[in-house]
Automatic annotation (TrEMBL):
The keyword Thylakoid does not apply. The keyword Cell membrane does not apply. Residues 3-121 form the Response regulatory domain. It comes from the Bacteria. SUPFAM superfamilies: C-terminal effector domain of the bipartite response regulators (SSF46894), CheY-like (SSF52172). SMART domains: HTH_LUXR, REC. The modification 4-aspartylphosphate is found at D54. Residues 148-213 form the HTH luxR-type domain. This is Response regulator transcription factor. The lineage of its organism: Bacteria, Bacillati, Actinomycetota, Actinomycetes, Kitasatosporales. Keywords: DNA-binding, Phosphoprotein, Transcription, Transcription regulation. InterPro entries: CheY-like_superfamily, NreC/VraR/RcsB-like_REC, Sig_transdc_resp-reg_C-effctor, Sig_transdc_resp-reg_receiver, Tscrpt_reg_LuxR_C, WalR-like.
Length: 221
């Protein structure tokens, strides 16, 4: 079972998500929280696979709560997906930088929410299906200037190539087609790049790809 925690200060939002997720045979909502402080405490107690975290909450906002969760060495396997009302929320890219595995808009289609939860656990999630790859570049353009690429020195040429493709939003299957390799081979290259760079997930690979200058805004056309 995929264990999920819901963190949102709106009871109706949590109730709707809970009904939808609990109806799935492989997903169970194990805890709820009405603010960021409660969310952090609940994650430490219940150790969910995925925490669906609203960005704007009282007491402790979702960004701070996410940083506390993703930087806790005792919670290495908890994935955080941010919830936002607007796709162009100015905090979204900062959420990814804080360690979130991606984000979803609250009005996403029910089947997309379920698919996203499963994808996060599989390690393939990045952004809401409603958010285009162009948006990735937009938020990357707002990030700090590219830093020296010393961190990439341990990567092979192929791993750099794969990381760049992850950076522009391609899935393992799309990378495999682009490089004419099997999806398993593509996944292996992605995993090795993550291990070498100490990246928590694919979302952090995207951040590193932009911040190192390996991928630059505008490449998406």
């Amino acid at each position: 079972m995929i264990r999920v925690l819901l963190a949102d200060d709106q009871l109706l939002v949590r109730a709707g998500f809970k009904v939808l997720l609990d109806a799935q045979p492989d997903i169970e909502v194990v805890a709820e929280a009405g603010d960021g402080q409660q969310a952090v405490a609940a994650v430490r107690v219940h150790r969910p696979d995925v925490a669906l975290m609203d960005i704007r909450m009282p007491v402790l906002d979702g960004l701070v709560a996410t940083r506390r969760i993703t930087r806790d060495p005792q919670l290495p396997d908890v994935k955080v997906v941010m919830l936002t009302t607007f796709e162009l929320d100015e905090y979204v890219f900062e959420a990814i930088r804080s360690g979130a595995s991606g984000f979803l808009v609250k009005d996403t289609e029910p089947e997309e929410l379920v698919r996203a939860v499963r994808a996060v656990v599989a390690g393939d999630a990045l952004l809401s299906p409603g958010v285009t790859r162009r948006l990735i570049a937009e938020f990357a353009a707002r990030s700090k200037e590219p830093t020296a690429a010393d961190a990439l020195s341990e990567l092979t040429d192929r791993e750099r190539e794969v990381m760049a493709l992850v950076g522009i939003g391609l899935t393992n299957e799309e990378i495999a087609r682009r490089l004419v390799v099997s999806p398993l081979t593509a996944k292996t290259h992605v995993s090795r790049a993550m291990i070498k760079l100490g990246a928590r997930d694919r979302a952090q690979l995207v951040v590193l790809a932009y911040e190192s200058g390996l991928v630059r805004p505008g490449w998406l056309g």
